Amino acid sequence: MNQTKKLAKVVYTPASQMRTPGLLIRSMFKDLVGSRELAWRLFIRDVSAQYRQSILGIFWAFFPPILSGLVFIILQSKKVVNFGATDVPYPVFVLVGTTLWQVFSESINAPLKSVVMAKPMLAKINFPREALFVSAFYQTVFNMLIKSVIIIGVLFIFKVKITAGILLAPIAVFVLILFGMSLGMFLTPIGTLYTDIQQGLMMFIQFWFFVTPVVYPPPQTFPYSLIATLNPVSPILMTARDLITKGQFSNTVPFLVISGLTLLALITSWIIYRVTLPILIERMSA
Amino acid sequence: MSDSLVTIENVSKKFCRSLKRSLWYGVRDMGSELFGKSNTNRALRKDEFWAVRDISFEVKQGETLGLIGRNGAGKTTLLRMLNGLIKPDNGRIEIKGRMQALIALGAGFNPILTGRENVYVNASVLGIKKTEIDRRFDEIIDFSGIEEFLDTPVQNYSSGMAVRLGFAVAAHMDPDILLVDEVLAVGDVGFQSKCLNKIGELKKLGAGIILVSHNMHTISTFASKVILLNNGKYKTYANTSEGIRDYKKIFDNIDHKGIEKVCSGNDKVNFYRVDINNQKLCPGDSFAVALQYESSLLYDDVEIDIAIYSSNEQGLHFQATNKAYNQKMQIMENRHELKIEIKDLRINNATGLIAVTIWTKNRTEMLFWWRIPVEFEAVKHTTGNNFLNVSYGFD
């Protein structure tokens, strides 16, 4: 019999979870810890399923950044466009840039994609909901590790001098991923209700690519210099690229500010997701 | 410590009929939730309705509650609230202990992956640790009975096989509270009985069970009390068979005088008076029809067809003609009476139609066809649509 066992008690009421913030935060972190194994399983499940049903497999991770990089390399070398001088050879600059951008755009899309795909599961099973984001994070990191082969290849081919500073690059890339994911998490609640969000996001990311110094060095003249100063992803991306190609920290202050904001955004969007999820589930399978 | 595992107090839940509005209400509810306003006691908005209204009950250890009601009565909504998937709009739900829902078996299965891989995925979705699964893996596979297909991708499984695997995983986590929502309907008979045994086993261990089923046999076997949901209202029955009887009455929409007189003769023969002994029958009773007719012709060798349909007209309890009894029948000239009697009815606990049809020889013309709605009362302490004479004895 169960008499001897102390049974955990759960209470469900209509009251908003925001009314009991202590309980909310505690249960969030409890579930985050409790979701580790599940997140890992989901990650393994998705990755193995993805590669099992594909012939080209890992190729798809390399293809987009190299292709868009090549386009700009050709345009620049044939003088169709002139982005001005870069500190490192332009192919290195652009290939590292597009790879990082690809990582960033995947980080934005990952949370919403993960939740939308898990709809049938969310609607029917009570599991730690954090697992979906954690597994999305694992997947993004996994894809990033595959893509880092491009970066390493480019550094070797163009004989870029490698310095100790490159060891700090993973931190910047990590911030880049978290920044992207926090944006994606913000959009997840509304994005699960309306498909417009996923559609709009695709367009928006494309536009964002052009107003970020990915394929061109940051403009110095006003008002174009705003691209580097007002666009929050610019300092992170530029810092990551500088660490990889030159081994030195640039944009330190903006980078630190954005990192702090990322942390704040991450927690806020997590709370929003957590609090609104029961309402979303109600509408999911109605 | 009270031994009540599930306590529900005045719980209500509303839903929206229109999708567009439902999504928009979703956005607004998210807003009020984020700003700390609760959605309690709010009146219905346009297109909304109460799916569950003001319901209270509790389930204690070792107790099994049967939730019955027609489709859309709110049974699944209630289970989803209990499972913590959606919040109640009113009231309070208290759960003690580990809850397991046998609702979406195999949710989280990836079709590309093999059964073996999916067991681990499914288990983690349900909150079972890998070490626990490793330990009980053979037991689970043995229970599911699909060893041969363990390394086959789940997309090649039949729906029954996927459910078997899903149930096998879910049933092996020793819950304190078990929610079962009509999931067993998919498996074959052998597997169904296995599942029911497993549920019985958990019940013996002291688990509280909430069972949703349209199979009244399952309900009467397991449930110690029944809640009947109907049109947003509910009624609790400590006596299971009373609940089942009332459930069946929901589907009983027959006007008791509503005899369908499809045909009462032609220009040669007229059935001018029909007497029926009773429209309410108990097992063991006889059903008798007396037909008085006036005919200007002799119809030799007519066929008299008797059928008893279940109330949805798809099920057939019984059908036979006089030929089955080697009785030669005829309709004679002038006024006569024809008597038909079904002796010792064995139909129990159902509503239905008794159809009496008279055909000319070789069924070339229909002379009479009436359909008479009847009700077969239930014998106490029984379920099922037949009542058989059983003798008990012991040495």
Number of domains of chain B: 2
| Assembly classification | heterodimer
| Count of DSSP strands of chain A | 1
Order of helices and strands of chain A: EHHHHHHHHHHH
Coarse shape of chain A: elongated
For the termini of chain A, the CA-CA separation is 38 Å
What spatial form of chain B do the alpha-carbon principal axes imply? elongated
Structural class of chain B: alpha/beta
| H-E string of chain B | EHEEHEEHHHEHEHEEHEEEEEEEEEE
Mean pLDDT of chain A: 88
CATH class of the largest domain in chain B: Alpha Beta
Which superfamily, in CATH terms, is the homologous superfamily of the largest domain in chain B?
A: P-loop containing nucleotide triphosphate hydrolases
List unreliable stretches of 5+ residues of chain A.
none
Number of helices of chain B: 8
Which class do the helix and strand fractions of chain A yield?
mainly alpha
Strand content of chain A: under 5%
Helical percentage of chain B? 10-25%
CATH architecture type of the largest domain in chain B: 3-Layer(aba) Sandwich
The tally of strands of chain B reads 19
Structural Rg of chain B: 28 Å
The count of domains of chain A is: 1
Folded structure, characterized:
The complex is a heterodimer of chains A (286) and B (395). The two termini of chain A are 38 Å apart. Chain A has helices at 21-34, 36-52, 59-77, 90-117, 119-124, 130-157, 169-193, 196-210, 226-229, 233-245, 252-284; one strand at 9-12. Chain A is elongated and about 70 Å long. The relative contact order of chain A is 0.13. In chain A, 71% of the residues lie in helices and 1% in strands. Chain A is built from 11 helices and 1 strand; from the N terminus they run βααααααααααα. Chain A has one domain. Chain A has 286 residues and is an all-alpha fold. In chain B, α3 crosses α5 (159-171). With 395 residues, chain B is of the alpha/beta class. Chain B folds into 2 domains: 4-250, P-loop containing nucleotide triphosphate hydrolases (Rossmann fold, 3-Layer(aba) Sandwich); 260-376, abc- transporter (atp binding component) like domain (Coagulation Factor XIII, Chain A, domain 1), CATH 2.70.50. Chain B has helices at 19-34, 75-82, 115-125, 130-144, 159-171, 189-204, 216-222, 240-250, and strands spanning 4-16, 48-60, 64-69, 90-96, 99-102, 177-181, 208-212, 225-230, 233-237, 260-263, 269-276, 280-281, 287-295, 299-310, 316-321, 329-331, 334-342, 350-359, 366-376. The mean pLDDT of chain B is 84. In chain B, a hairpin with a 2-residue loop joins β8 and β9 (233-237). Chain B contains 8 helices and 19 strands. Classes of the chains: A mainly alpha (286), B alpha/beta (395). β1 (9-12) of chain A pairs antiparallel with β4 (90-96) of chain B, so a sheet runs across the interface.
